C-alpha cells in the first residue's frame, strides 16, 4: 500500500483550501458523504490529506469522473479539485460540458497562474508578460477567466465564484454556498486564487503581494 | 578506474548543486562522467539523490546500487538509501554533528562542507584538483549572500 | 537564453549534456521547424529548452492539440515534432494514428515513465506496445530505441530522415533515465548525417482531396495493403539491431534501450567467466530486424533466450511474434516493470540458468 512520500511545498495554497473545505464539511456534518476527486497536478498530493474518501484521476479528467460518480451515487457530495491547467487547458472541454449539463458537482480550481508540479510552465491563467519556462520572453496571451466564461453556459441555480486563499471568511462562505448548490441539484465552481512561492520564486512578503496583485486581474466575488 | 558517488539529502539542501560542480570539474579534466538526479513528485521537500560516476572509460549505465562514496545529509535520505550498500568512503551528517557545531556551520552550508570533504578525497585519488572545483564553486555561488562563509568552509575542508 | 542551451547552439566538440539537451540538439541539427507540446514529466525540459533557443514552438492546451498541430505543420511541409510520455503518449496516439493512415512524417520523442495511468514520473520500458502498436491501426510506424547518449542523438536525426523519406510516422522511444542523465557528448564521435528535406504534402501548385475515412471496406483494405507493401519494402533497409558477441553462443540475451546497454556490460562479464552468451539488441523495434535474429538461431545452438526488460513482457511479445515459427526456442525472462535493471542482476540470473 503506497505511503504518501510526497508533500505540498512550504507556502502552498492547497493545504489552506483543503482545510477550509474540511472545516466547512464538518460544520455541515457532511464529511461522511463527501468524496474528493483529484486532478493530476499538485492537487494529487491531497490524496490522503483529509479524512474523507479521496482518489486521484487523470489530468483534465476530474470533472467527468466526478460527474460519473455523482450520477452513480446521488447522495454523495462530490468535489473535483483541480489546478488552473487541469481546469482551463486540458480539462476545459469537459468542464464546459459539465457546466452546460448543470452536473451537480462542485469544482474547486486552485489558480496560481502556472503549472506547478512540472516546474512552472505557462498556464491559461498566466498573466500577459509573465515569464515562465515556456514563455521565456514573457507570455504573449491574456489570462483566461474561467468562471466568467462559464457564465455563458450555466443554468439558473448554478453557482460560480472566485475567492483567494488569504480571504478565509469568503472562502468558507463560497465553499458552503457551493455545497448547498450541489445539494439543490446544480453545478458549482469556486476558483481560489492560490500562491506557489516555489515556482513564483518569491519570499514570504512578495508571495502575499503577488497574490493580492492577482485580485486586480481576477475579480473576487460571486459571478 | 570507475568511481561511483551517491549523494543523498533532502530537496533544498543543495545536493544537486554540489553534484553539478563535481561533475563539471571531472568533465573539465577529460574524465568520462555520468550524472543522474533522482527526486520524487513534488517540487520541494522529499529526498534528492545524485548518482555520479567518474571513469576513464565510457560509462554504460547511469544508475548503480553499490556506491564507492556515499554521502547522507538527512534522516529522510538515510531511510531512502538503506538498501544501498555503503561505500569505501561514507559521509553521514550525524557523524559530523559535533564538528559542524564547533565550526559554526549553518544548515544551508552543510552541502559546501561535505563538498569540501569529498573534493579532498577526490584530490587524494588524483581525480580532481581542489582549485578547479573552487573556481566552479565561485562561479556558481560567488554572488550569493553567504559566499564568504561558504568560501571559508570549502577552503577549511580541503586543507 | 539558459547557459547550457547556449552551449548546444555552439559547435563545441565535447560537451556535458543531459539527454533532453541532446534531443534538442538533434532536432535542431535535423532542421526541425517547430515543436508543439504540453508539459509532462520527464519531457518538460525538451519543450522549455526548445522554447528558449528562438525556434518556433507552441505550448498547446493538451497533447491532443499538440499532436494535431504537428500533423497540420507536416501537411504544410514543415518539419514538426512533439515530446511526451505516459498519459500524454496515450493522447498522442489519436493524432499519431491519423499520421499512420495519411502517411505523415510525424516525429515524436517519448520518455517512458512508469505506467499504467500516472504510474511514476521516472522510468520504465512500458510504452513499447503503445509506441509500436498504439492507435487503431496495424502499427505501420517507425520506432527507435536508443541505448546511450550517442544513439539518442543519432536515432533522433534518423527518425526525421526516415519519416520524411519514407512517409511513416516515427517514435524516438527513450525513457526518463536516459533523458535525465548528463554525460559527455562528443561531436567528433557522432556519425555525420545529411538531412532529408521536408516537402509540402498539401501542394501549393495543385489541389489534393485527401480522406482518412472510406465508404467501402474494400477501399480501406486496399489502402492498408498498399501501406503494408511500402513498410515491408523498407523494412530490411531501415531495421537495425546489434548482435554483440554472438559467435558460438549457447545463450542469447535480448534487451533494448538502456537495458540493452546494461545487458552488454553483463555479457562482457559473463564471457569472462566463460559463459557462452551473446546479446541481440534491437535498435529499431518497428520494423524489427527479424532476419538478423533468425540468423542467430541458424548459426548457433541456442539453449535459452533471456529477454530482459523493465516491463512485463512488452519486448518479449514482439520478439516471440517476430521469430520465425519454425525456430524452436526456450524463453526465460527478467521482467521488472518500472524499475531499472543492474548488471549484477543479469549476471546472477545467467549464472543460475547455466547450472
Short description:
The complex is a heterotrimer of chains A (about 220), B (about 160) and C (about 350). Chain A has about 220 residues and is α/β, with parallel strands linked by helices.
What does this structure look like?
Chain A is of the alpha/beta class and 223 residues long. Chain A has a single domain, classed as Rossmann fold (3-Layer(aba) Sandwich). Chain A has eight helices and nine strands. In chain A, the strands form two sheets. A seven-stranded mixed beta sheet of chain A has the order 2-1-3-4-8-7-9, with helices on both faces. A two-stranded antiparallel sheet of chain A has the order 5-6. In chain A, helix 1 crosses helix 6. Chain A is globular. In chain A, 53% of the residues are buried. The model of chain A has no long low-confidence stretch (mean pLDDT 96). Chain B is globular, with a radius of gyration of 15 Å. Chain B has 159 residues and is of the alpha/beta class. In chain B, helix 2 links the parallel strand 4 and strand 5. Chain B contains six helices and five strands. Chain B has a single domain, classed as Pyruvate-ferredoxin oxidoreductase, PFOR, domain III (Pyruvate-ferredoxin Oxidoreductase, domain 3, 3-Layer(aba) Sandwich), CATH 3.40.920. In chain B, helix 1 packs across helix 5, helix 4 packs parallel to helix 6 and helix 5 runs antiparallel to helix 6. Chain B starts with a strand and ends with a helix. A five-stranded mixed beta sheet of chain B has the order 2-3-1-4-5. Chain C folds into two domains: 235 residues, 3-Layer(aba) Sandwich (Rossmann fold), CATH 3.40.50.970; 115 residues, Rossmann fold. Helix content of chain C is 43%, strand content 19%. Chain C has 13 helices and 14 strands. In chain C, helix 5 links the parallel strand 4 and strand 5. The model of chain C has no long low-confidence stretch (mean pLDDT 96). Chains in contact: A-B, A-C, B-C. At the B-C interface, helix 1 and strand 2 of B face helix 8, strand 8 and helix 10 of C.
